[in-house]
Amino acid sequence: MENMLSLMRSRQSVRSYSSRPVPRELVIQCLEASRLAPSACNSQPWYFVIADEQELLEELRSSAVHRGMNRFAKQAPVIAALFSRGSSLPAKFGSMVKGTAYDLIDIGIAAEHFCLAAADAGLGTCMIGWFDKKRAAEAAGVPRTLKPLLLITLGYPAEDTVR
Known about the structure:
Oligomer: single chain
Largest sheet: 4 strands, antiparallel
Structural class: alpha+beta
Order of helices and strands: HHEHEHHEHE
Radius of gyration: 16 Å
Distance between the termini: 21 Å
Shape: globular
Helix content: 40-55%
Number of helices: 6
Strand content: 15-25%
Strand order of the largest sheet: 1-2-4-3
């Protein structure tokens, strides 16, 4: 239990990244942690797009720097775009009956699993909800049925990052 609490205490929103590349194996570990997140009726309503190659990364960085916000995203060596793909029919029914957006709760849990796995690997993250969603979806090339919800910057914190 103490290891988990220590990890939670060490995780923070990082807004200054080093230029050091993030090994793809670490990104895959973060995705695996997200895959293991619980969800209503095991519907797993999330869909990740990882940008670590220049063209898509630049597009997602630009969508993050929206109306003067999130300029730090220009430094991130990786951006994960998180989309909602909708819940399963039983989970949707439960959401309707209970008046609770279970898919959004589930996606939040998956995003936090991603961030905790990153912190455990010595990486920093920052969840961004204020971004140009239309531009991000177009850049990611996802179908219109997927709803953009979050961008998560990912990288090694800069030396001057407060811990």
